[in-house]
Write a structure and sequence with these properties.
Keywords: Membrane, Transmembrane, Transmembrane helix. InterPro entries: CmpB_TMEM229. It comes from Paenibacillus profundus. This is ABC transporter permease. The protein is built from 4 helices and 2 strands. By secondary structure, the chain is mainly alpha-helical. Helix 1 crosses helix 4, helix 2 crosses helix 4 and helix 3 runs parallel beside helix 4. A two-stranded antiparallel ribbon has the order 1-2. It is globular. The protein has one domain. The longest helix has 64 residues. Helix content is 71%, strand content 2%.
């Protein structure tokens, strides 16, 4: 077995709606996994399991967006060296754009790398980009085959529950956007 080749296929051939449902499953699962990862990281670095995120619910959309974008390339058969480069670029770009947007729209910076060397506006730094590279490569090549197999077993249930999960997620996004935007404007006006 090649070190860079998954031992389980990514997923069976799907079409249209099935592809979208699978990608939504992956997005939701990785967004939740990102939330868990951040909570565990917070626990190890600060001793507190709770780290406030942008959304009120247990999701970190950045952790869902980056793997889904990477999977779109991986499923097209991208060479492992290309995937390695993309595992560096895509999560870093998602993190930078997310940080910039959150700061511009909500007047707040959820993470700050300004104390790290080789950083960009505090939203991105080389050290964490290298972490994302390793994490992303592991997800695409070793975790995703198991997630795809899980989806294969749960797809019928997911297809029924997906609208409920998406409604919950979109409600969380809408509520968060409204409440944080309102709070950010209030904080800006009281400076």
């Amino acid at each position: 077995m090649n070190l860079f080749t998954p031992s389980i296929p990514f997923q069976p051939a799907l079409s249209g709606v099935e592809d979208a449902l699978a990608l939504l499953f992956y997005f939701m699962l990785y967004s939740f996994g990102g939330w868990v990862l951040e909570q565990v990281y917070s626990w190890f670095t600060t001793g507190t399991f709770w780290k406030e995120g942008f959304l009120w619910g247990p999701f970190k959309p950045m952790y869902g967006i980056a793997p889904v974008l990477l999977l779109l390339y991986a499923e097209r058969g991208a060479h492992w060296s290309t995937m390695l480069l993309l595992c560096f670029i895509i999560p870093s770009a998602v993190e930078y754009i997310s940080g910039l947007m959150l700061q511009k729209v909500f007047y707040r910076q959820w993470w700050d790398y300004s104390e790290y060397p080789l950083q960009l506006h505090g939203h991105l730094c080389l050290q964490f980009s290298l972490y994302w590279l390793l994490l992303s490569f592991a997800v695409v090549h070793w975790v995703q085959p198991w997630v795809a197999a899980l989806y294969g077993h749960l797809s019928v249930v997911w297809n029924m529950l997906c609208p409920m999960f998406m409604l919950y997620f979109l409600t969380d996004v809408a509520w968060t956007f409204w409440s944080r935007r309102r709070r950010g404007k209030w904080m800006m006006s009281n400076r």
